[in-house]
Design brief:
Helices cover 76% and strands 0% of the residues. With 366 residues, it is an all-alpha fold. It has 3 domains: 85 residues, no CATH class; 114 residues, Receptor-associated Protein (Up-down Bundle), CATH 1.20.81; 106 residues, no CATH class. The longest helix has 49 residues. The chain is flat, with a radius of gyration of 34 Å.
């Protein structure tokens, strides 16, 4: 009986012991780890997770294009969270505007709310787009030097993989990052040629894509890789110099457009408003007594100076947008480049408009 009692006590002690033999029992260490995990979960901003919900209402094509633009721009952001934040802000402004317009019964506020909603998304898209263009230009600027360095490494007896790996210099910026990413892929299950071709999926550059295809084809065919890469680098440098020369030659056209938009248009609009104010004042003073040759003062003027002022603001914005598009096409050859100049042109033309109005009306120049 004593032996049976001892065995029961040993079994009971094993059940109650916090050792390795009882994994179900939670030790103080396990409890501390669980609390730490809960704190870590609570420390993550819940709002950042919930912002994904606001991206569900956006079109799939828009989300797919934004995700690709973020990759091209070199931004390691979550596209759903990013679009969710943008959509949340724009919807918040839209709902406030709609509520205020319903309470005040003003359709203008409702229209401005919808325009603000669209403007926020448009500004976001063009911000990422111009970031992508800036990154592409920098990479194309460093590409000829990188090709020359790879060719020199090949001439020194290195393999193509070693030549590319040792050509990743810090001064190449984002190009160095993409080269290191491709060589890291080649260390795994991906072949070296596929790793090279994957670079064009993260950089939107036709020049870089052609250079990579030339590198891969020369590596597979066994051609003189060093000579081919040197020639490709020289061709890219010559093309860049020709584009810079063409942009220099077309600067006079851009300056002429800037002068007309920023100086001529605001001045003429201010003169028009001032002339209409003078005609309205003369009609009030005449009070039906009009002399010879002044019969036009008897007719009612349906356009008021206030209405012409708002029309002038709209005309200045439209003219600035058109001029920016023209400058973008002339200097860079793309319509979207013109939107980069629009904020500066719009701000400049409106500022000059008010300066001309101050000089003409309050300084008595006209």
């Amino acid at each position: 009986m004593n032996i049976m009692g001892l065995l029961k006590r040993k079994k009971k002690a094993k059940r109650e012991s916090p050792g390795k033999g009882n994994p179900k029992r939670k030790t103080p260490k396990g409890k501390a780890k669980r609390k730490l995990g809960l704190r870590e979960r609570l420390s993550i901003p819940i709002t950042m997770k919930s912002f994904r919900v606001f991206s569900w209402f956006l079109p799939r094509r828009y989300k797919r294009n934004t995700k690709q633009l973020l990759i091209y721009a070199g931004k390691e952001w979550d596209s759903d969270k990013f679009l969710g934040v943008i959509n949340f802000v724009s919807l918040f402004i839209l709902l406030i505007g709609l509520q205020y317009s319903i309470m005040a019964g003003d359709l203008l506020i409702m229209t401005l709310s919808f325009l603000t909603f669209l403007l926020i998304h448009a500004v976001t898209h063009f911000y990422i787009y111009f970031k992508m263009l800036s990154r592409t230009k920098k990479i194309e600027q460093y590409l000829p030097d990188a090709l020359q360095l790879i060719a020199a490494n090949v001439r020194a007896g290195m393999t193509p993989f070693q030549a590319l790996r040792f050509a990743a210099r810090d001064e190449f910026g984002d190009l160095k990052t993409e080269i290191e990413r491709a060589t890291a892929k080649a260390f795994g299950t991906t072949s070296f040629s596929q790793a090279l071709l994957s670079i064009k999926e993260r950089i939107n550059s036709r020049v870089l894509e052609r250079a990579i295809q030339l590198f891969v084809s020369s590596m597979k065919s066994g051609a003189h890789m060093a000579n081919i890469l040197e020639e490709a680098g020289r061709d890219i440098s010559e093309n860049r110099s020709l584009k810079n020369e063409l942009a220099t030659n077309t600067k006079m056209y851009s300056m002429f457009i800037l002068f007309i938009v920023m100086m001529g248009t605001p001045f003429l609009l201010v003169i028009s408003i001032r002339f209409l104010e003078m005609i309205t004042a003369l009609q009030v003073r005449s009070s039906g007594q009009v002399g010879f040759g002044m019969s036009f003062l008897m007719s009612d003027v349906t356009i008021t100076p206030e209405f012409l002022f708002y029309v002038s603001m709209v005309m200045l914005l439209i003219t600035s947008l058109s001029a920016g598009i023209m400058i973008g096409v002339i200097s860079d050859g793309k319509v979207k480049y013109g939107f980069k100049y629009f904020p500066f042109l719009a701000t400049g033309t409106i500022a000059i408009f008010f300066v001309c109005r101050f000089l003409i009306e309050y300084m008595g120049l006209f």
